Amino acid sequence: MIDNIDLKILKMLQEDARVSNSAIARSTGMATSAIFERIKKLKSQGVIKGYRTELEPRMLGMGVLAYVFVKVNIRPGQPDTAVLLAEIPEIQEVHHISGEDCLMVKIWATDTEGLGDLLTTRIHCLEDVQSTRTTIVLKTVKDINELPLTYVGEKGKK
């Protein structure tokens, strides 16, 4: 069960994964060792999946963000196309979706030419890919990885 202290710890870690246990302890009024144990528990429960550094793709030469909707022909005994797509480094996310298409992937590419090459040489060539629809992002208004923790634990309460 996640309590309010856990939520505060998670919020602080989402804001800055490098925040020290002692800073969290000061903020919560708990001992550093207690914070260490709570974080360890949250990791073992799978609530905390890991820590990473957020990079700015455009500063690294990746100027095109695209979402590609992929329609596949799923056949028993064939490799899972979603797994094959997930192995392509430029693909950041692979989601099974409902609707006309089967999969949605998020791609960072150097430019539109690079995106086109990726589509033709590494995605369209997969045996079960029937078609793709590509949407290129022109401008991002909001892009965060933080989960809204305000309502965690409120599920089921009226």
Task: Explain what you see.
The chain is α+β, with helices and mostly antiparallel strands and 158 residues long. It folds into two domains: 4-44, Arc Repressor Mutant, subunit A, CATH 1.10.10; 57-136, Lrp/AsnC effector binding domain/regulation of amino acid metabolism (RAM) domain (Alpha-Beta Plaits), CATH 3.30.70. It has five helices and four strands, in the order αααβαββαβ. It has a four-stranded antiparallel β-sheet with strand order 2-3-1-4. β2 (91-96) and β3 (103-109) form a beta hairpin. α2 crosses α3 (32-44). The two termini are 19 Å apart.
Provide a short characterization of the protein structure.
The protein is an alpha+beta fold.
Keywords, separated by commas or semicolons:
alpha+beta, 158 residues, 19% strand, Alpha-Beta Plaits, Arc Repressor Mutant, subunit A
Q: How does the SSE layout of this entry go?
A:
Layout lengths: L3 H12 L5 H8 L3 H13 L19 E9 L8 H6 L4 E6 L6 E7 L2 H12 L5 E8 L22
Antiparallel strand pairs: 1-3, 1-4, 2-3
Helix pairs in contact: 2-3
